[in-house]
Amino acid sequence: MKKKYDLDLIRKSIDNLSKDIFKNCNIKRCNQWSNPCGCCTKGDYPVSYLESLEIKDFLEKNPLTLQLVKNNIKENKKCYFYNSKDKICSIKNLRPIVCRFVSLRIFRHGEKLMGCSPYELCSGKKSTILSFEEKDTTVLKNNYTYIYHHPQNDIFYLDFKKLDFLKEYYQDNFINLSDIIKKTF
């Protein structure tokens, strides 16, 4: 398969956008890899084919991380890569694109817009997704940054479907994280 996009550039771009949001929002936001009860424990996320190759290669070259993953699977943990001892993602630098933007993403559900609430960190016990209407937002001139005018504080969200550097990424084939693990054992 011919490489169509640059994962390092995508990671760097998303991380920079995230830093801008964290800096401008003045609200503590989930950083996707340090909340052991958050979205990263909610399921088996899809990753692009290129991401899957990188993660598989990393696991094959890092037996300690592979053992952590095996232990997490045995203990029925939802996130295979979360190191509860050090409270960090064991593949932080390679963590999937979806893990980098999940709490910053705005998405549509019918007529509503939705996004993660910075006011309640996910606990796994109830939804912390905010639902709001487009009339309650401002879209910045860049056309992919939404500001939801929440009664407590404005909340910045990104529409990742509109980011040019992700267009080719979204055209790749996707595979579930669990399938990568199964192929590595």
TrEMBL record:
Pfam families: CxxCxxCC. It comes from the Bacteria. InterPro entries: Puta_zinc/iron-chelating_dom. This is Putative zinc-or iron-chelating domain-containing protein. The lineage of its organism: Bacteria, Fusobacteriati, Fusobacteriota, Fusobacteriia, Fusobacteriales.
